[in-house]
Design brief:
By secondary structure, the chain is mainly alpha-helical. It is built from 26 helices and 10 strands. Among the domains are: 4-143, no CATH class; 339-489, no CATH class; 492-663, no CATH class.
């Protein structure tokens, strides 16, 4: 919570009587178990979240301000006319009277006026007996607001997500380790500075002169002060032409025993310092001699950073920390409130007989009492490494917040990180610019749910193992059925069910257009579609029996439940005994197919459709170029490659034949 959200300011309510009413109302909402409140028959029983209290005070203050402007001095005088006029007044924004306020916001204004009736027995001023604003109509009924049931958060488009993931992972995996070492050096300097104090002691002067001379002989440039230091010195009368005007002293010699922050200290060593600057030059103290790293685009070796001052180093640390924030959000599905509760040491690694497990401990707030409850997420290794890097860069002690919200909202983090990646620093490292568009944790959570459910085969699937994320999410649900990872898995399942229904309807539409499925499972699928045709033909015509998409979806829903989406085929898993993958694995009692063992060219439950043509064509081309085009390939390997090539070409030809029959049904 920000500082302003922790203050309920009632002073803007002009009428002292209503100022007291507002205090009484909010204290009753915050403490519903107080003896005076608990006996009220219609009072709320759940404590009001302090953040919600801050936001609810605004519409109540607006209601009292309107009544004051109308000359009303007591709630007893309020009539329905006042309520209707108030609703009209707040329905337009103050900054742009031509723009309407959202219905959800208006509903909050109406609800604030109505909720006072729930506490009339203990409030010092109340409406007249029997009066309730808008009578028995609820706030949504008054405004016409209907709360959406579907998830309206749009996913992050691929053209934005792709450079975002590539840039953040580069920052964490390539730049992060070098930056962490540099920040550790900064913290060591700060500890030394705290030890030696802020003035040069007489006993340390000779040692400092020896340090200056040693650095000069080694050809080490003098340290340059940050731009904020320039402004400070100029404000205190320093001459910008002074050779020492740009000198930052302490990073180079703090280990010797001094910090030299004050001008009198610098003046003691002016001859030595001017000679050092004249012979060796001056440059920012941090990131000197940076290690070479490969550019993200060309692989060319470049320094991971140019020399930078303290402020630039801190800003770069903030950028990499923001990269860890967005990688965690994109690959875990955590909500913003859970991300902001992550602490140093929250990422845990467990070695088990079945392999390594990675967990992240946070707190969940949604649906919980204020303060939340501890919750744990099972994540993939990428998230674990991102949080490990965040802890190394910040140097926080266990238990301290990694992504403390304060003013560093997700929007601020994303804006600054995008500016850095799109700016000179990102271009020097070969990072692809991130285009315009909003990115926030809610959208990344929605994107991940859609990607797991729909199994895309783009950069996300190549860079990050979606299957591993799905397995981690499922394991987290099994370990903590009541946790929020279970809610995320439920969201994924709902999206997956809708996607499978859509794909089944798409296959049915192609069938009706004459584009038949191919593969050994095509006959059974066509029989299902013919049964749907028969069911639709039996219906009497009329407005109730119009063949619309919803009716087709209902008829195909049972078939869609058996659909499992493979890389290059659909698997209609109806009988485990007919599943070739289970037969090969020796487990015909399984409830799901093993798509990793799928041989759709031979399985009686697999079908191929036009959307799969590109996958098989690409596979055939790669086999031809990489294997069949290799003269060193052994005869046995060549035979296997040739068989794989022939199978891919056969499937492509079958798909093309099905499409050409639709284009030319008479064979002309």
């Amino acid at each position: 919570m920000s500082r302003r959200q922790k203050i309920l300011d009632f002073s803007t309510i002009a009428n002292p009587r209503w100022r007291l009413v507002a205090r009484e109302y909010f204290m009753s909402r915050l403490a519903p178990l107080h003896p005076a409140v608990a006996v009220l028959p219609r009072a709320f029983r759940t404590p009001l979240d302090p953040t919600s209290a801050y936001h609810l005070l605004r519409p109540l203050t607006a209601w009292f301000a309107y009544l004051t402007s109308e000359g009303v001095t007591t709630l007893y005088q309020v009539s329905q006319t006042h309520c209707d006029t108030f609703l009209q007044e707040v329905s337009r924004t103050k900054t742009d009277p031509g723009r309407s306020v959202s219905l959800s916001t208006l509903t909050g204004y109406v609800r604030s006026t109505q909720n006072l009736t729930l506490y009339s027995e203990i409030l010092s001023d109340t409406y007249r007996p029997g009066f309730r604003p808008w009578g028995n109509r609820s706030a949504p009924e008054v405004t016409g607001y209907s709360k959406p049931t579907a998830n309206l958060v749009p996913p992050v488009p691929d053209e934005l997500l792709r450079p975002l993931l590539a840039g953040t992972r580069y920052l964490l995996e390539v730049v992060g380790p070098h930056l962490a070492a540099e920040t550790r050096a900064v913290r060591a300097v700060d500890r030394g500075e705290a030890t030696f104090g802020f003035v040069v002691k007489p006993n340390d002067r000779e040692g400092l002169r020896e340090t200056i001379e040693r650095l000069r002989l080694q050809g080490v440039p003098a340290p340059r002060i940050s731009p904020s230091g320039f402004a400070h010195r100029a404000h205190h009368g320093w001459d910008p032409s002074d050779p020492l005007f740009h000198l930052s002293w302490h990073p180079a010699v703090v280990d010797t025993g001094g910090t030299m922050k004050h001008r009198p200290d610098l003046e003691q060593f002016r001859p030595e310092l001017e000679r050092w600057i004249a012979e060796c030059g001056i440059e920012p103290p941090w990131g000197r001699g940076a290690a070479q790293v490969a550019r993200a685009d060309t692989g060319e070796a470049v320094p991971w950073t140019l020399p930078m001052d303290r402020i630039a180093l801190q800003h770069m640390g903030y950028i990499v920390l923001s990269a860890a924030f967005f990688v965690t959000a994109a690959l875990s599905g955590m909500r913003p409130s859970e991300l902001h509760e992550l602490t140093a040491g929250a990422h845990q690694r467990e070695e088990r007989p079945g392999g390594t497990r990675y967990r992240v401990v946070s707190r969940r707030h949604k649906g919980e009492a204020f303060g939340g409850v501890e919750d744990a997420w099972v994540v993939i290794e990428d998230v674990y490494r991102a949080l490990e890097m965040a802890q190394q860069i910040t140097g926080l002690a266990p238990g301290e917040l990694l992504f403390a919200k304060s003013s560093n909202t997700a929007h601020v983090r994303y804006t600054r990180m995008r500016q850095w990646i799109n700016g000179p620093s990102g271009r020097r490292l070969g990072l692809e610019p991130i285009p315009d568009g909003p990115v926030h944790p809610q959208a990344l959570r929605r994107t991940l749910a859609l990607m797991i459910a729909q199994r895309p085969h783009g950069l996300m699937a190549a860079k990050v193992q979606l299957k591993h994320i799905s397995v981690a999410t499922t394991e987290g649900y099994a370990a903590r059925p009541g946790g929020h990872q279970a809610a995320f898995l439920a969201e994924v399942s709902a999206v997956e069910e809708a996607e499978h229904t859509r794909l089944t309807v798409e296959a049915y539409d192609q069938y009706r257009q004459g584009i038949l499925p191919t593969g050994k499972g095509a006959r059974d699928l066509i029989a299902t579609f013919q049964a749907v045709d028969h069911a639709l033909d039996r219906q009497e015509p009329g407005p109730v029996t119009v063949i619309d998409d919803r009716r087709v979806e209902r008829l195909l829903k049972a078939k869609a439940k058996n659909l499992h989406v493979g890389v290059g085929n659909y698997c209609w898993f109806t009988d485990p005994r007919k599943a070739l993958c289970l037969t090969l694995a020796g487990n015909t009692e399984a409830t799901e197919p093993l798509l990793g063992l799928c041989d759709s060219a031979r399985c009686s439950q697999a079908t191929h459709h036009p959307r799969h043509r590109e996958v098989w064509a690409d596979h055939a081309e790669q086999t031809r170029v990489v294997f069949l085009g290799n003269p060193r390939l052994s005869k046995h390997e060549r035979d296997r490659a040739q068989a794989s090539f022939d199978r891919s070409i056969r499937i492509v030809n079958e798909i093309d034949t099905a499409a050409s029959e639709q284009d030319d049904p008479d064979g002309q």
